[in-house]
């Protein structure tokens, strides 16, 4: 084990750092004051260092971009869910991409609401400013305007600007769609079946996919709307294109969304239904603070380069994680497989390695890593592992595919409560910092 590593074997904790013993009290003292702190001013990372160091929303240095446990990928920070005056937001869409770039984001999307068809919009559009529709949602003209803005802001290798839209059914749920020239709304594709038929139609796909698939999609703020996407009823044809599930939306952790009303965890319900999404965090901005302030959801992606093609690839591979802390780096492997990948056996002692960092301000900060597994209504927790930011944490957990085909890592601050808790005494009733994308048991 290297000096940077922190070992855990079935509840046994080895030394941290250079070999000197670090007590629980020492680690907790380093975490005092809470995790979401205002960063020191006047320490902005330079643009020339952008490939190496993250800049947080407050301008302070965050984690370096290179993983300590995998090679061939670079960390980029993304926000894939935002709104403007083109639907029900209050901000000028022409300002959105630059705002997100100035907040330290490397990948950004506008996803205004697609609510009503152009038949209705054609009556209302002449009464509103060009491309603006606060009443009914994104118009076809607004959709074209989003492409113009994204293309103007996109700078391959430096900043990736994506256009998308949010298919918006007030009862069934909201679904983001990215990487498509096509467009639909809730009157053209009213129910989940109609949306999935639209998403999977055989129209070809911008040269980015394999043909036949038209865009990538993700479940938004899952569980907020009562229908919950027909309770996440699985549609095999949409399996490859449905790539994300929001775990952090604005300031909220959606792990136990609806639990207080007797509804099962969106994470458990979605993954148990057969979907295989990665897990994301988003700002879902409706004002003018795109990318700001600290504490709203973000997504970390592991890409080969910062381009639309590479972001598309990372999303299809589920090589991303959810967080609500700017500047955070999370990389993890299970039996050597990266997050979003497959564990090629049916069980046994599964070896995890977790690289967790947010730069010098968080060095040594106490965190927990919770190993989430399928459960009845809520995830079961196979283990809780103490970790420290700025180190690699390695541990093994005995898992059995017979207990369910997925596993997720949740990073938390045990000193703060979850604002939306689950059952009394559940280990995840503390404050969530990040979620890895799942791994799935796929024995060879």
From TrEMBL:
Molecular function per GO: 5'-3' DNA exonuclease activity; 5'-3' RNA exonuclease activity
SUPFAM superfamilies hit by this protein: PHP domain-like (SSF89550)
Protein name from the UniProt record: Polymerase/histidinol phosphatase N-terminal domain-containing protein
Chain intervals for the UniProt region annotation (Disordered): 1-22
Xref: InterPro entries: PHP_domain, Pol/histidinol_Pase-like, TAT_signal
Domain of life: Bacteria
Lineage of the species this protein comes from: Bacteria, Bacillati, Actinomycetota, Actinomycetes, Jiangellales
